Amino acid sequence: MTKKVAFVTGGAQGIGEAIAKRLARDGFAVAVADLNEDKAGEVVKAIESEGGRAMAVKLDVADREAFAAAVNTVADKFGGFDVIVNNAGLAPTTPIETITQEMFDKVMHVNVAGTIWGMQAAVAKFRELGHGGKIINASSQAGVVGNPNLMMYCSTKFAIRGITQVAARDLASEGITANAYAPGIVKTPMMMDIAHQVGKNAGKSDEWGMSTFSKDIALGRLSEPDDVAAAVSFLAGPDSNYITGQTIIVDGGMQFH
């Protein structure tokens, strides 16, 4: 494909890292945005070692002005802007009685506001450059059906499906599509921590905690980050040009919709 520019938040590890590397292999120049600039830099080095083009961006997605500035910096550096992947997020284990106002504010600001700020910054840049673009947001299978002990995470991921649909309606006439991807149980540090906390809350092992999520996967295995990155690759590329407002569930067959 003609060289295009993609911006991936939470790109320093896990699913975000896999997405950044996959989009670089697809031919995108990739901005790897993360709070951890050092780890983002390691991902950039890995991309460059394979002949790709990338840059690290330190970013707190909950900071609206910083997000807009980061998008401007990337567009200036790479000479364009075409795709944003709002992947960054928090996933605390939250039985109902444990949720505090501070926790609510923090998770909502990162997961939901951070996605909205990314959409705003991307749309402003698409309009400035005079072309359409692609918005790709991270939901979750926990944004399709409620998961035990994940009140905060589920609420944000359900919200992301909704705001993605609104954006798809509002922006279609400008050639801007908006879609979401909904990973299942992925082998990432975040998922391992969730399994640990769920097991701990029940007085059981990490393996038991993981089994509460993974027991219903039709394909019989946990997801690798590359499984999710492949779906994002499709949404970022030209084969998905006639798709908007959708949430692609990438969970190995946990939910059928």
Automatic annotation (TrEMBL):
SUPFAM superfamilies: NAD(P)-binding Rossmann-fold domains. GO terms for molecular function: diacetyl reductase ((S)-acetoin forming) (NAD+) activity. It is an enzyme of class 1 (oxidoreductase). This is diacetyl reductase [(S)-acetoin forming]. Belongs to the short-chain dehydrogenases/reductases (SDR) family. Pfam families: adh_short_C2. Coiled coil: none annotated. It comes from the Bacteria. NAD(+) binds at residues 13-15, 34, 60-61, 87, 153, 157, 183-188. InterPro entries: 23BDH (IPR014007), NAD(P)-bd_dom_sf (IPR036291), Sc_DH/Rdtase_CS (IPR020904), SDR_fam (IPR002347). Keywords: NAD, Oxidoreductase. It comes from Bifidobacterium aemilianum. One of its GO terms (biological process) is acetoin catabolic process. It catalyses: (S)-acetoin + NAD(+) = diacetyl + NADH + H(+). The active site is at residue 153. Its EC number is 1.1.1.304.
